[in-house]
Structures are given as structure tokens and as C-alpha cells.
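Lecture 7 notes: from sequence to structure.

We start with a single chain of 186 residues. Read the sequence below before looking at the structure.
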Amino acid sequence: MDLLKADYLDKLGPLLSAEAAAEAPGTGVDAADLEQAVWVRLLESGRHAPDPAEPAEPARWLRRAVRAEARLARRRARREIPYGHRQHSVDGSAPVGAAAAAEPEDALLHGEENRALRSAVARLPGRCPELMKALLSPRDLTYREIAGELGISQGSLGPVRSRCLGCLRRMLAAEVAAPGLRGKER
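Now the structure, written as C-alpha cells:
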């Protein structure tokens, strides 16, 4: 079916706008973004588009596509973590500007995060602690310089880094995911 013909665009445009406007508030995405995602889905679907013989089919496909894109947007919003309001200096050491004086609790939390990260990096197995310290060095070393310092080939830095980051991610997730008991202990 060629939904991209002008008559289909004219028929489906208002329906798409209405459906996207209805779904957008629950997703945290603009209605225009939902509309655009549905048009892209239609373009990508090609021959899998609805059958033109049945007049209700394009409208039903459109409604389903809007709802599917809304579900994807909600899932994406749950996974994404917005960048915080804290501003840090170039090396990431301390807040700069008004944020430094206005919010001391942010500085305290940032210090605790750094201590937890440094502690987890120190507990990594093998060469991971040295590699992570070199990667996070304020000297901004290249892979060639890091490989020279650690005495390993430059080609193996990527895979080793990936394994170390995976191990660090698992360690930190285990520490964060373990909530303490609340209320009275029995």
C-alpha cells in the first residue's frame, strides 16, 4: 500500500495529530515528536504497511503505531537519566560558579560518589585499577601513551577497558541495589 500518496496524507494527517496529541502527555514527549516517529515508522515499514483494500486498515495501523511509539517513549524515559543540575569543573573535581556556594549538599554527595567510585576501582581485578586510573587521569593520555605506561599492546586496551568497565558496572550496581532494612528489625 502506498500510504505516502497525497490523499492518504491528507486523510491521515489530522488523525495522526489527534492521536499523538492524546498520547503525548503520558509519555513526556511532544506530540510532534510522536508524529514524526510514526511517519518514520511508516517510511521504514515499506511493503508491510496496511492493506489499501480495507479503508479502516490505515487508520487502525496509524493508531497502533502511535501507541507503540508512545510505549517506546515511556520505556526510553524510564531508562534515561537526565543530566543533573550540578555543574562541575573540566576535571570533574568540584562544582564551579554559583552552584559551589549555593548547594553544599551537592558537593558532599559528589565527594561521596567519587569516594565510592575510587573504592570500587581499587577493588577491580587484575590490571583494571591501573588502566582505569590511566583512563581517568587528568593528563588526558592517548591510548598509545596508556599502552606504553602499562606495558600492553594498544590493540588490547579496548577489550580490556570494556571488561573492566563491565566489572565496575556490576560492582557498583550491586552496591547501589542492596537497600538497607527500614523500620524495626525483627
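The radius of gyration is 25 Å. Keep this in mind for problem set 3.
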